[in-house]
UniProtKB/TrEMBL annotation:
UniProt name for this protein: HTH lysR-type domain-containing protein
Family the entry assigns: Belongs to the LysR transcriptional regulatory family.
Species, as recorded: Anaerosporomusa subterranea
InterPro entries, alphabetized: LysR_HTH_N, LysR_subst-bd, WH-like_DNA-bd_sf, WH_DNA-bd_sf
Statement: the UniProt record of this protein carries the keyword DNA-binding: yes
One MF annotation (Gene Ontology) recorded for this entry: DNA-binding transcription factor activity
UniProt keyword annotations, A-Z: DNA-binding, Transcription, Transcription regulation
Superkingdom of origin: Bacteria
GO cellular component: protein-DNA complex
């Protein structure tokens, strides 16, 4: 498959028009069209619907499905070029769930960024099950997830554990650290964050599992931005709650029957040889900055 055709296809879907793609690639529009036709012939599928008089392109169903393949192909080609040049510094692929990456691992990222000689790294935000798949396929070198799943090629180690707490806007007469009964919280004002199936079972012990949450979010920060009413509340990991409350605008309460979540570190049983040194260094930083949450 021609890498020029892949690059052209990605430019077209990014710009949505052949004209803008040709400008970005510094070639004529006819050249862009020719490259796309050659790519379609090589693949044996039609990627783009060509409508006369319509400036914006429209992808076929197979064209939509080809996007992630094209992106992966382009990434592999770039890595191959870097490998062949022999000049690329160590490169580490890291994956983590949102709350761990943004509120626990930042000190380790900063230390890795300052390492000498330099280590290049990429951080990917994924769900726990996706992290297992990525480590298994060696698309990432290390992952941090909340599920413990058996995979023959994935080494799973507990990293740290932390309690879940209630976070809401500061309120007169209430202090941080006060213990609250989960049943005292009005479910009508819950901002729900899905922490996984085990957490869901714990949650269902206190609140009607048949009740659909009024608002659900996939990131902790979204919930924080939605807290504007003192009646609202959300159950969040302690690491996030402490990070959010540096300004003192929020109230953190402890649940008298709380859920404790464990973060697991995932690595491949046979890591990439080219990433071994950078992985060992990052694991040192991860251990050094392991959170102590009580």
């Amino acid at each position: 498959m021609d890498i020029v055709g892949i690059e052209t296809f990605l430019s077209v879907i990014q710009n949505r028009t052949l004209t803008q793609a040709s400008v970005q690639m510094h070639v004529s529009q006819s050249t862009v069209s020719k490259r796309l036709r050659i790519l379609e012939e090589q693949l044996g599928i039609k990627l783009i619907i060509r409508n006369k008089g319509v400036s914006q392109i429209e992808l076929t169903e197979k064209g939509e499905g080809f996007i992630p393949i094209a992106e992966q192909w382009m990434r592999i080609w770039r890595e191959t070029q870097q490998l062949s040049s022999g000049s690329e510094p160590d490169f580490l692929q890291i994956g983590a769930v949102d709350s761990i990456s943004n509120y626990v691992l930042i000190p380790a990222y900063k230390a890795l960024y300052e390492a000498s000689p330099p280590i290049h790294f990429q951080v990917r935000i994924q769900r726990s099950i996706e992290l297992y798949n990525l480590v298994d396929m060696k698309e990432i070198d290390v992952g941090f997830a909340f599920l413990q799943i058996h995979r023959p090629n994935v080494k799973v180690e507990p990293y740290f554990s932390e309690p879940m707490v209630v976070i809401r806007l500061s309120q007169p007469g209430l202090k941080n650290g006060t213990v609250v009964d989960p049943l005292s919280l009005d479910p009508a004002y819950e901002l729900y964050y899905d922490h996984g199936p085990v957490y869901q079972l714990w949650h269902d012990r206190f609140w009607d599992l048949r009740r659909r949450p009024r608002a659900s979010f996939h990131t902790c920060l979204s919930i924080l931005n939605m807290l504007y009413d003192r009646r609202q509340w959300s159950i969040m990991p302690l690491s996030f709650a402490r990070s959010a409350n540096v300004t003192g605008d929020y109230l953190i309460n402890i649940l008298d029957d709380t859920y404790v979540r464990t973060c697991f570190k995932l690595t491949h049983q046979y890591p990439r040889r080219s990433a071994e040194k950078s992985l060992q260094l990052f694991e040192q930083y991860v251990t050094q900055f392991r959170p102590i949450l009580e």
